[in-house]
Design goal:
globular; Glutathione S-transferase Yfyf (Class Pi), Chain A, domain 2; four-stranded mixed β-sheet; Glutaredoxin; alpha+beta; single chain; 55% helix; 7% strand; Glutathione_S-Trfase; 2 domains; 4 strands
Length: 233
């Protein structure tokens, strides 16, 4: 993937949707950056060095901008989107309604769509013990949220207006996974159309072609699952 050690931007991350949203925005902005792959399954994010120097919250993505004096690290994915969009004056509308619609849908993704989709995946795929109530709860809520998104996209190419905004960078990496849930592609045709619209953008297409070539491993050991899902400190 994109790695430029001479860049003034450094991104710590992995292959998760929350990291992808930042990488897509960096690609659309045409910015070079050094990418540091964090070994999440083996607990690198919980090391004292990582918590002190990268993210006190032991999460990725984290972005360092060395164009500023003494450098500056921004954590949390949508916070990074806001930072980059504000710095480069792109992907946030200038009018008040468009601006705050963009903020709403960006926060909607980070507060409800991402957490519920993530929990649906965890309890369906990764949990050692299947909990039917949790599976039902998070599957139903994720389904409801995709219904909300499907209605929002009726007659729209993008989530806010006719142009891509940071709301799309936030939502798209999660929305594209709708095709993995049996029957949901048929239920949410506007979301499927939206995925195709965003995917057709040259920067997105180029990134996803590179992304597809990366090795993927979700066969985690119990110890690795503990680092990923059950860490208490």
């Amino acid at each position: 993937m994109i790695t430029n050690k001479d860049s003034k931007l450094t991104l710590w991350g992995c292959s998760s949707p929350n990291v992808v949203k930042v990488r897509l925005l960096l690609k659309e902005l045409g910015l070079d950056y050094e990418f540091k792959l964090v070994d999440l399954p083996n607990g690198e994010q919980h090391s004292e060095e990582f918590k002190k120097n990268v993210s006190i919250n032991s999460k990725v993505p984290a972005l360092r901008d060395d164009s500023l004096e003494d450098g500056f690290i921004i954590i949390e994915s949508c916070n990074i989107l806001l930072y980059l969009a504000e710095k480069y004056a792109k992907f946030i509308p200038n009018d008040t309604q468009g601006r705050f619609d963009t903020f709403f849908w960006t926060f909607w993704q980070t507060s409800v769509l991402g957490p519920n989709f993530g929990n649906m995946n965890y309890f369906n795929i990764f949990a050692e013990t299947k909990v039917p109530l949790a599976i039902e709860r998070f599957t139903n809520e994720t389904h409801r949220l995709f219904n909300v998104l499907n209605k929002r996209l009726d007659g729209r190419d993008y989530v806010v207006g006719d142009e891509m905004t940071i709301a799309d960078f936030a939502i798209y990496p999660w929305a594209r996974n709708v095709v993995r849930v049996p029957g949901w592609s048929e239920e949410f045709p506007n979301v499927v159309r939206y995925i195709a619209t965003v995917r057709a953008r040259p920067a997105v297409k180029e990134f996803e072609e590179l992304e597809a070539a990366l090795p993927k491993n979700f066969d985690f050991t119990p110890e690795q699952k503990a680092f990923l899902f059950n860490r208490s400190n």
